Batch of 3 targets.
Target 1
Amino acid sequence: MTTIDMSQFYQVFFEESEEHLAAMEALLLELDIDNPEPEQLNAIFRAAHSIKGSSGTFGFTDLTDVTHILETLLDRLRKNEIKLRSDMVDAFLEAGDVLKTMLAGHRGDGGADPQAMEAVCARLKQLAGNPQPAPVATPAAASAATPPAPAAPAAVADSGGHRSYDIEFVPTAHAAADAAIISGLLDELRGYGELQIIVRPDPAGDGAGFWHLRLKTDQAAERFGDSIDFIAEQDAWRISETVSAALEDAGGAFGFFPSAAGSPVVDDRFGLFEDMPPPVATESASPAEAEAYGFFEPLPETPGAAASPAPEPGDGCGYGFFVPLDATPSPAPAAAPVPEDGDGFGFFAPLPAPPVVPERAAAPQRADTAPQLVAAGPAKPARAEAGAVPVPAAKAVKAAPAATAAETSSIRVGVEKVDQLINLVGELVITQAMLLQCAEQMHGSVPERLAQGLAQLERNTRDLQESVMSIRMLPISFVFSRFPRVVRDLSSKLGKLVELKMSGETTELDKGLIEKIADPLTHLIRNSLDHGIEMPDRRAAAGKNPTGTITLRAAHQGGNIVIEVGDDGGGLSRPKILSKARERGFQVSDQMSDAEVWMLIFEAGFSTADVVTDVSGRGVGMDVVRRNIQAMGGRVEIESMTGIGTRMTVRLPLTLAILDGMSVAVGDQIYILPLSYVIESVQPDLRDVKTLSNQARVIRVRGEYLPVIVLHEIFGIKPAAANLTQGIMVILDADGTRAALFVDALVGQHQVVIKSLENNFRRVAGISGATIMGDGHVALILDISALAAMAKSAQMAAA
Amino acid sequence: MENVNQQTGSAQDDEQAASEFLTFTLGDEEYAIDILKVQEIRGYEPPTMIANAPPFIKGVINLRGIIVPIVDMRIKFKLGAAEYTPFTVVIILNVAKRVIGMVVDSVSDVLSLAQQQIRPAPDFSASFDTKYILGLATIDKRMLIVTDIAQLMTSRDMELIDHAATH
């Protein structure tokens, strides 16, 4: 049979495992230790379990080993056999870290430290109390812990009783016609133990059709076999005993049965079948995760014979599509075409020839087992994906883990493809602007229909652009999700009590920015934790809650995204910063505004921490933070009040590709101002413009004196407005300091596509990029922060 | 080391007989550059000025969505008058993975030059415009200055590329 190159799926495995690990970590951090929600524990268990399943599939046994131990402990927790303690959460987090490094190791960057791995395993084992949980055969302890979960189809091998049976039958027409007969049977079975109805026929079909029940009981099959025989169609029933621990989730694997000829109900014949023995046969406490169940055709077999075939233990997780075989008298394992350590499934085409006897397939065959029986259809190597087969899709979604279900509604696409799309839309925006400008130049002589068409085009282009940009948008929770861990680890390291409050996690941000903002934000949070929040005793002494709060908030504001990192700590100390700045030889004065003083902490080599810790205090962090944020076209501001706290606000453009700009004219040149910096524009009155030391100019706007940046002087352009009263002042907010930019005239407001100047040229002071205007000309985008700095240094040089 | 390089270089050129060069004029001088470095030739259009750039950097233009800097070689080499007429030509070069536009007076020819036709230029030592001269060639009594355009454009003198050390 075909061997499948598993390596092609590795990438998917790595990505999925990383997602599972991230989900696990997030859930762990949310856990209320004293009163954990069963659903959360289950979700954590599922995440660990999925990793275990797929790592086993791919042959990453080291991952399987660690997750197995992790899972054992989790399982005992979720069954309330042991109580959750905070040291367990620590151990889980640690295990998650080890798994991450192991994953990285398999990816080829770095490797896991085997000692760390062993240490974690040992710790988990010790926490679990019993490294090898009692085999299923000891029901006493287990029965107490039976999860009352018929809805969550649990654990076949679970502890409800000694045995678990899969009962499958098709009732006779007579029995089917009378609902009481069936319900009587169900009641009878319930009397034996815990009954779970896995498949019931479509009620529309008059009760006729295929039933699949699962019974957990300590009774022998013979006890109820007769009752079923009575109700079921001649020979159309089967009871099979499920060996403990045999059923286990194979990490989202499942298979479908195509319909078989000669069976009464076609629809119900499709099923999900997931069956996998654990790598370690002795493992019992891993009740299969709910997803495992299957549909089977009725069997014309004696109960005794039917009860015996149990899935053979193997170490692959194989699964397959089974189809009724033609009249096979004895239990013949229909082997799935299991590829090398097989994660794959195959379609078996239906065979005609009733009576139909699909054998309970011993799905997990050894990996190298070739399909022994019917493999009429091509074995399709594919990732198990719900919806791959249209008809049973609904069931697949129900049964498969949530992650798999989600795949039906999303696709993975390379970022470069999306970027190409964005570039093309950028070109379209330019072309559209060009057409519009042409039409405007024709003034009134544009035919009405053309004008309408152009207006329509403009709307459509904008919509298209927005939807294309939204492809790249990711919720900021991708970044935020790591911070609970950061805060937790760091606060325990520093001996502080800190609560992290996050809001606005759904705020969407360009993927490129998401990747770049993570480091600066981490730095800001670490800084707040280290310098902002005081020790608990000091907080108590100051009459505050000993537990400090760090707030992380994201929101849209105009065309920007605003991320705030706030703490209710001691606040920045103005005298301390000033004295430190003097010590470092910075140019400071006592007249500086608070905002300016706070900005000093972003200077290179500046740290007010008295003690350099491994957390912060070396003074390298904050200047890097500011530089990174500025490189993204964003800026950072600080507000602080002594004793109350500090708030750092990061403003970022929504996207790196397109910005809202205001075009201004200086001489014969057009420049673009990013609109987010513009506060207002004023017609200067000569009386408001003053000079300082006859050099630096300031303008009085609303009672405030702002420095004037004269663009044509900085850029050496011959202006149309030689006199300050002839032009216009644009009031800008640059990194928390305001300034007035003097230009000849305001031209308009556009969305501009940012083009790099550096691809073919070099950086130009005061220019952050270029764009193409509607007429095809290049306009340069002004770098406001740099201009403010240039104006300042020019004035200093002049003074 | 250099000798070895020259030998292998000339051996290669002998095999390939000749390479093609684009010739253009700057004032009264005629230059030749490797045609494989030329992306296209287009008319001059006024570029967008870049503030505080040296005078020979005329600015940037939009070349089908790419921002391309334009340098005027006549200003750089102080050759002829930097006048912009409808016949002023911009040679778009593709060197060092960059696209750069170069203003010249006119483009004259495409011709093949064998390695032996290119004679070493007399050494004017450090004056910058001779550093990038591969040699001189004579065709129909015209003297062609064969220029290593890639090296010239990426050099620090042209100020087209950020150099780590420059400020």
Note: Residues 19-166 of chain B form a domain with the OB fold (Dihydrolipoamide Acetyltransferase, E2P) fold (CATH 2.40.50.180).
Target 2
Amino acid sequence: MAKKVRVKNLCKSFGSTEVLKGMDLEVSEGEVVCLIGPSGSGKSTFLRCLNQLETPTSGEIEIDGYLITDKNTNINKVRENIGMVFQQFNLFHHLTAKKNIMMAPIDRKKLSKKEAEQRAMELLTRVGMSDKADSYPRQLSGGQQQRVAIARALAMNPDIMLFDEPTSALDPEMVGGVLQVMKELAAAGMTMIVVTHEMGFARDVADRIVFMSDGYIVEEGPPSEIFTNPKEPRTKDFLNHVL
Amino acid sequence: MDFYGVLTNMYPMLLDGLVMTLETSLLAILIAFFLGLLSCVMGMSRIVPLALISKFYVWVIRGTPFIVQLFIIKYGIPQVVQLWAPGFNFTIFQAAVATLALNAGAYMSEIFRGSIQAIDPGQMEAARSLGLPKTRAMIKVILPQALKISIPMLCNQFIISLKDSSLAQVIGLPELFYQGKIYVGRTFRSFETYIIVGCVYLIIITILSYIIKRIERNLDYGKKS
């Protein structure tokens, strides 16, 4: 299968703190990869490097055949194909749910207002939020905001979706709805890279689990292997704490 | 004491002064808004000379008294320009508006900067992650939110500028306070006249505050009502 993402020897430091110490990862089209690991292990930083929200210190990242670590690559164009969902949702506070979704397609893809609105309504229906189209973010619960945020990321028709702990800021009863939307997305064949602490989701949905610790990939493999028979002591230790 | 007599007598002068005060400060604040926005954008620019110009501007305006600025613009600058263009001069109105605008612009620049910095960086990240270039993200996402939170501070600046416009009487701008002074010179009714002038400022500022509060409320997106 075609490789969507190739990462070679990625390093990232903040000042003198090395957060990523040489990561290699390949993700195939349609694959769902879950990144797990203790806090501070560099999972989020890694994810944010993939769409250049963080600039890597060294190493190469290739997405859809574009070498995005090359300064000459038009990063804005590549980002249109990479949807991102944030822990804190980051919906635009001054726009309604519908307008949050319409904004980027109108601005970037030059969609007419009508087309964008129609697309927004389809997406809102898909995430079960069509009745809240005209609500402002602060009128929505965290779970609802996150579902709108997923719809917003999908509006640009990305072929890769990055999820940065999408359920970590949610009340427990809100988590299920968001995970359900993500499951449906995975079932529809979306390439997904998910940083998560939801081990149940990782086990059910992921094609591959990547366990990170201290800026390295310690171990990776299918969920059945990682969760039932981890090889590395650090993986065992982590799983003992969270399962 | 004869407030009623003074009021009816100086009424035409009072009205002229009020119109001049409002004209000067409204025009100045409008120019200051764009000047402040420009200076703020320049100040946050990665192009170092632009950022330095903005910083220098704010530094000079904040560090010097309004009245000195007024005299430099009305009397100082024309003198220099006359070396190349004999006969050049600012009208009193032009000098007053320019000084007020330059003055308020510097403070507004700081207001905008603070408001933009108060916006959660996640908003910018979300916009960038959708493929918006930085400038577009600024225009579509950051500025609308920043402008909104800056409204109360802009309103405050407007009130300050409106009151500062009374200082322009020293270069002879026939605004509200100037008219009061002229009237006192003619009638020696200091107490009544200055109280009345003060009340007029108080009334227009109260009305303005009310209008601005209404605007602010209408702009409030999705606050639970």
Note: Chain A is about 35% helix and 25% strand.
Target 3
Amino acid sequence: MGTPTLHFSPKDRYNAFLTTVEDAPYCEGPLSGRGVAVKDNISTAGIETTCGSLILKGYTPPYDAHVVDLLIRAGAAIVGKTNMDEFGMGSTTEQSAFGPTLNPRDPKRVPGGSSGGSAAAVAAGMVDFALGSDTGGSIRCPASYCGIVGLKPTYGRVSRYGLVAYSNSLEQIGPMARTVTDLSNLMVVISGYDPRDSTTCERPYRHKPHPSVKGSKVGIPEEFFGEGVDPRVASVVWDAISVLEEEGAEVITCSMPSMTYALAAYYVICTSEASSNLARFDGVRYGPPVETHLPWHEAYSERRRIGFGPEVRRRVMLGTFALSSGYYGKYYAKAQVARQMVSADFSRIFNEVDLIAGPTMPSTAFPLGEKTDPLAMYLTDILTVPANLAGVPAISVPCGEVEGMPVGLQIMGRPFEDEYVIDAAFTYEQGVAT
Amino acid sequence: MVNEREVEHIAHLADIGIEKGELEEFTSQFNAILDYFEVLDRIKTADREDPTLYNVFREDEVTPSLPQEAVLENTSQKEEGFFRAPRVM
């Protein structure tokens, strides 16, 4: 008797997948025979892993990421690799070298990013589960735009071993699904300590969601409803917050003054880390080969100019600049202080409340090709980056629509209280269903 | 604010490659972003390290690693078990 396989050949009208596995093997386990889509920056042994970049075209990892290893052991079938903004650098999946993913809710609109392929695959019903990664909102943004659930776990809860690094101090792998229950089941499998990632903690997630916000205090930072947030989105999110109130939560307004600095700090830190992480892509060990007969500087510069898209080159250059002598104190050192201010704001607020809620994104999904200015694109991340800077868990759960496009309710919690965040999202989901 | 010459220098430091025709656009985008980063200048630099950070140590023990063949699988440019790279001298 051979290994059982899951047949997978979806009509991928949204360019959600970069690679599919037609007959995906699986074993016995809690996820036995369930198909899982994996973002293309998570290493899969024997399955091409490009990070949405030409510089890794043809690269087949010789090992599995820890989370992939855990999924396989839990019986999941790895059915494919999903499209993404190149190396996770983008908020629309338009920065993929292999063409944009389309939003299943309206194919003329972006699915969000950078885990846009994973979100579209789940939203279109091609799979029930997907893995994404979230550096500054890359799970929650596409979850919000496509109308699914996505969690950025507490930093240290899920191993990053085998995740192609973009910004190590900010990013986490996390689950995406159509229901909170499915998302929770996936989180059970992927969480836990891994000696190969020294930033993981011995804090496995072993939880079944139950509706419980009675007596909880939910903080609403006024900055999350400030300038730049579409008032129609704000109104849908307020309605969602009132559902939590009906379920017994107490809503308290609060303030997060560090939001003034959060986005700038985020972009200084992530580009700085990226400039170092992406130095390894030089065409020597993987990807299309470097020209070995040219002087090395010229050879690498040319390889990387062709291999990286414009947004990746922009961010590597920004990071190189921010870390260069003479500017380090002005940018990187200040950004680290701002990061501590964000953490301090969260700590202070979490002394008063149990959860923080607001919109995931300032708007709904916009048309493909609409935002071409890099800074305008960065500004859409304003509500998601604080959770990454502070390492706290944050979920996006669908909470209504504006003109037919989904809106996400973002719920954040104290570090390592992912269970509580998931319970709150579950309460909302069930509260609306009844 | 940076000028085109400085952007070219940064590209050189980062080994990222830049063409003359790209300089104007990269420079103006760079300046818009750096202008946004100016907000950080209002922050006073901290005089202490982040107290929540600490090192994680482990014993320096030999553990199994990938076989050499697996590591070399993804390149077409190899020689006697090594990667072939551009000349540095």
Note: The two ends of chain A are 46 Å apart (CA to CA).
